[in-house]
Structure formats: structure tokens, C-alpha cells
Amino acid sequence: MSQTMTFQAETQQLLDILIHSLYTEREIFLRELISNASDALNRLQFEQLTSSDILNPEVEPAIRITFDNDAGTLTISDTGIGMTRDEIIENLGTIAKSGAKNFLQRLKDAPNSETAQNIIGQFGVGFYSVFMAADKVRVVSRSYKPDAEAIVWEATGGTTYTLDAGDKATRGTDIILNLKDDAKEFLSEWKLKDIIKRHSDYIAFPIYVGTESTEAVNKQTALWRQSPRETQEDDYKNFYRMFTMDFNEPLYHLHLRADVPMQFYALLFVPGSRENSMFSPRKESGLQLYARKVLIQDYNKDLLPEYLQFVHGVVDSEDLPLNVSRESIKSDRIIANLKKAITSRILGDLKRMAQKERDQYLKIHAQFGRFFKQGLVVTPQDKDDLYDLIFFNSSHDDNPDSFHSLEDYVGRMAEGQNDIYYVIADDFAGAKRSPHLDAFRQRGIEVLYFSDPIDAMLPMGLTEYKNHKFRSVDEGDIDLKDVGKPSEEAEKQAESLPVDTFATLSVRVKEVLGGRVKDVKESKTLVGSPARLISDDAGANRHMYRINRLLDREYQLPIKTLELNPRHPLLHNVSTLLAQNPENPLIDAVIEQVFETALLQDGIHPDPAAMANRLVLLMQAATGTATDALKFDDLPPAVGLPNESDMPDMELDDVVKE
Ligand code: ADP
Ligand code: MG
User: Fold this and answer.
1) Does the model's pTM come out above 0.90?
2) Which of 98, 207, 479, 514 is the most buried (most CB within 10 A)?
């Protein structure tokens, strides 16, 4: 007896759009149905690995498309896993699938039919796209489970569908479309074959068109099993597009065939962009894992290290036992060996590209470089490879578009230089202007700019590169006396404050800044700036506050030592004021401002706008207002006072994915 059921509200909404407003790209319904049939066949094959209790085990796994001109119907049949009554209600009565949900969401954001055409044309929304071409759809399905009964599902795109008992002798699913009057063009063998070739050529099962045909329309080659020598660039691009629905070209592909010690095939891609297209059939990271052409797992994350999870593709092993269960796969020794082999090939290729095809490599780096940096921190055993994959701007050419490897850097080291110097900043401009660079520039020593926000965590992973230690330019004890050669300009430094005068000044600075600084010292190296903040603590957690800030967490300003430049005219002036009248309010205001400017230059000022009021008063003083008319006492409280808040642990993943 027939039973009428109601579609879920979202489904109704989607059907309404598909039926009434979309016409141009409607041939994609065929791609969607073929892809579902192929999934059903894959799942059947997987069941066959572990169970012998399968209906019609002798039936060929295949897809057949037939049509009837007189009746105006088109039928897509597969011999896949089929559906039980419960499954059909669950799968075809509700939108559980992210593709369709995303589609509706996108439409809400941009509700005109042009956008809808566009979205559906590129990506499709699965089964329901049949309603673009059909006014009635009948699904007859029989599950592979031997005791299941056939079921018939029928809908016209209204708010309800019906369920009925069916008679289907064999396993699988037939989808019968009653084509709309204006969709009769699909009743053509030529047309169907053309669509299949364009959209579904790589489907792994034969697709037959016509009742009698025994000749598959699609190539069906598992491209990865083909010899790389016989595979064209375009084959790879097409495969990638069908695999990911990414309409950008991949930045790199690797086609691997290995025989010893393991036999396997792999076809891997670095996508064109970090953003997965929201309609990508690849819903997660991970590689498709086949065992002798049978799809075992759609998303295997154990074949690549964490920092290469952005790679897409297929691995097909000849050695994995066929009766392997999804649970036991993870621990299989073969998987570990595959991972080793694949990873080392990818890393090898990327390293070679980084050296020989720098421009292409830098495109990869721009998208995925931060994963390599994360890898340095979380996968120390791969450090040696990863060191060659990270690039930076640097003071070598001060060009934001020019990237340098560690190898480049070491090759250019100054005389007597042993360490690799870096400056951490929020962005390129901040790095370039950093007062910490004064001394390095003067002596012709290059400094790497760690100016991607993620770079703040790098010091936790960097140890040594080719026996060269990494040092942050704000470390207090860096001694450049015997490194590089000072420029002539540097030789004739401005005159320094007399020792006594400087001592008096530092005492006052310490008084004013109190607990906000650890100490106040004389700088031997500063040139253009009156002051800088240096870190005594060379520990890797030194940059923690940046990471916490990046993650939008509360953070505490680190307490650092303030280095004053005894040659700077500003400090000469302040010393003079101090000698004339220690009560002059300008003295403390300038000290505050010097300190906050140093915070600002390091990119760690918690609230730069808070300096505005003081700056206005200072400008007034500079332009002639008498100091006793200036209300410095009314300024808001100083920034940078330590507080006691507990810092949460950080999670690297959060940083990388920002
Ligand atoms: P998706 O393919 O993204 O899961 P679809 O809307 O295309 O979404 O299909 C919905 C569900 O219906 C599938 O996940 C599957 O469970 C079921 N289904 C569709 N077509 C078939 C088929 N030919 N054989 C078995 N199950 C199917
Ligand atoms: Mg689908």
C-alpha cells in the first residue's frame, strides 16, 4: 500500500528553487546521479570485502543509462549497495548533506537566480538536482542485504513524496526521470555520452548508455594506475577538477608508482588555494585510500603528517590486506610505510622546487607556508626538511615581495657571523622599521623578518640550522663587536651623554616606569631611536603574549629591560630639563611617551590610541604652550602595568587556522 510522506521544510524550499528558477546548467543533474551511483558501487565493494552475504554477488558493478522516447523517461541504474525503506526516507526525504545546506545558505546571502545558476552549475546540490530536468522522479531500490525488500519512492517536487513496495529482483537502484517538456534533449544517446565524457570520465565503474550496450562510455581508468609517461598534463588537471571541484589549477601534482619494497600508486595534488571551495566533494582533509582499486576509506589522515594535510589525492596499495577493517587500518604497518614513502617524495619535490622553481614554489608557500612552520614546531623529527621550505622577507632587500630561504641567508652571512638573526613583528612595515635593526644595518648584517602573525610561534620550533643558532634581535646580550663591519656613518656616532648625566636620567626613568620595566640600561647600538625594549629571557616562550593576542586571548605584557640611547638628542634635551628643574612635568611625560613608543614599535602596545591625549599635550608644549598650563596629571593611567591573570595554554592549530 502506498504511503504519503512530507519532505523536510528545507527540502521543500530547495525543490522549489530547483524547479522554478534554474535552467541553464541543468545537465549537471546527470553528473550528480552518476556520482551517487558510483558511491553506491564503492560502498558495495567495500561490504564485499568483509561479508559474503550479498544479494547477487555475480552481478557486474556498473552504471547503465537508458531512455524511452515514447514515454519521455530517462533511467539511471546502478548495481550498488541500494537502499532499504528506512534508508530511503533518511537519504532522500531530508537534507542531511552539507552541499545542499550550503547552497541554501548561499542563496539566502545572495538571493537572485543568477547566483543560484552559478553556484549550482559549478557544484551541484546532489540528488535533488534531478528536479531541474524532471517533473516526476521514481526511485526503485533494493538493498544488497539479502532479506531486504524493494522499495519505490516517488515525488513530483511538491511538498510530499510517496513510498510503496516495489518489485525489483536484483540489487541496486534505478532512478527514473519523467523529463519536463523542455528537457527532452536528454533523450539522445549522443547528448548523454557527451555529458558523461565531460563530467564523469574518471568514474571508476563502467557507464553504459542504452539497454544492450556493453561498451563503457567513460575512460574509467584509475588515472593513478596509468603510467605517468602516458599521462598528459591535461589529464591531471581534469582529474583534479573532477576530484575537488576546484576550478583553479593545482599548484603541484605528484604521480607515484612504486614496486619495491611496497607496491602502490599515488596521485597527489597541492590545491590552488588554502580555501576549500565550499561545495567541494572533499568534505574533510585526508587522502582517498584504495586497496587494489577498491575504495577503503574516503578520508585517510594517517598517510600524511599533520603539516601536509592540505594535500589532496588518492593512494592505492597492492599490499593492504583486502579484509582490512576501517578501524584496524590506522595501526597497519603498511600505512606507516606508505606515509614514510609518500611524505619523503613530497618533501623532496617541494625542496627541489624551492631551489629550482622558486616562483612556483612561492605560490605554494604563500598558501601553505604556515603549515610548514607549524610542522617545525609540532613535528621536530621532520625539521631538517622543513627548514628548507620556509621563506621570509628580510633586511637584505627590504622588499615585501621578495622571499629568502635560510640557505640564502646563511650564504650571505657577514664576516664573523655565526647566528641567524630574526626580528618578530606584526607585519612587514613593523619589521622594517624596528629600532632593533639599527645596529645590524650599520654593520651590514642581514635580519630575517618574522612578520607573518604565525611566525611568533616559530622560535619554539627553531633550534639550529646547519649549526647556526637562531637569535631574536631583541635579545639583550647580542654582541656584534666582531661581526660584520660598521659603516663609515656608524663610526662617527653622535656624542654620548656624560656617564653621570646618563645615570641621573636612568634613575628618573626607573622611578617613572616602576614595575613596567625590569631595568634601564644604556644602549651601545641604537641609532635612530631613543629607546628599545630588550628581552633578557631567551626562552622559547618569550613570544607567548603575541600568540595569545593572535588567538584573541587575554595576555600580559612581558616585562622587559628598557635600553636608552645616550646619543639621542631627545634624551639630551630631557637630561637638560632634568638638570634645570626636576619638577618640570614634561620630563615624566616624555619618559612615558618614550616607553610607549618602544612598545608600539615592537607591535605590542595594547592600546595605541590611549597615547593620543599625551601626544596632544606634548605638541602643545613643542609649539609654545607654557608647561604649567598643561594638565599631564589628568591623563589616563599608564599602560603596561603587570597584572596577575593566568595565561591559558595555547593550541597551535588555532594559530595556523586563523
Ligand atoms: P551526497 O551524495 O552528497 O551524499 P545526495 O543528495 O547526492 O548527497 O544523495 C543523498 C544520499 O542518498 C546519499 O548520501 C546516499 O546515501 C543516497 N543515495 C543517493 N543515490 C543513491 C544510489 N544510487 N544508491 C544508493 N544510495 C543513494
Ligand atoms: Mg551525491
Assistant:
1) no
2) 207
